[in-house]
Amino acid sequence: MTNWENHKYFEDWENSLITKHFAFQFVNAYITLFSNAFADQDFNELALNLVIITVGKQIVMNLLDIYVPMLKIYWAKRKLNKVFITDFPGKSKTKEDIDLHYFVESQTILQTESNVLVVKYSEILIQLGYIVLFS
């Protein structure tokens, strides 16, 4: 949807994407809690849902923060090793080849995704919203 808006500058496009992302996350995260608090007025269920969401989300996000980068690094190294093995079969390994291999491997590992900070900051704001709006 943001791609169709024809922004003049990349910064405008990125700001529009961040705004849409946060608005969707806001509605998605709080709709059930707002319905429990204001439509049903069941505050015991609201407290239970709030505890489950905050504790469960913290556990899941911490596990994802630990294991997803490890898996990405593992798969990148595996793919890189396949490339080096298939591209240079039977070639003797010199010091320069090994140095090149380690350099390319380290650069592959250092590549990051572009929206990591947006996801992290929106997650922090959503967690803060749970505490501020429903405590």
Q: What does the model show?
A:
There is one protein chain. With 135 residues, this protein is mostly helical. The chain contains four helices and no strands. It has helices spanning 10-40, 43-87, 95-110, 116-134. α1 packs parallel to α4 (116-134) and α2 runs antiparallel to α3 (95-110). The radius of gyration is 23 Å and the shape is elongated. It starts with 9 loop residues before the first helix and ends with a helix. The model has no long low-confidence stretch (mean pLDDT 81).
List the helices and strands and how they pair.
Elements: H1 10-40, H2 43-87, H3 95-110, H4 116-134
Helix pairs in contact: 1-4, 2-3
Brief summary:
The protein is mainly α and 135 residues long. The chain has helices spanning 10-40, 43-87, 95-110, 116-134.
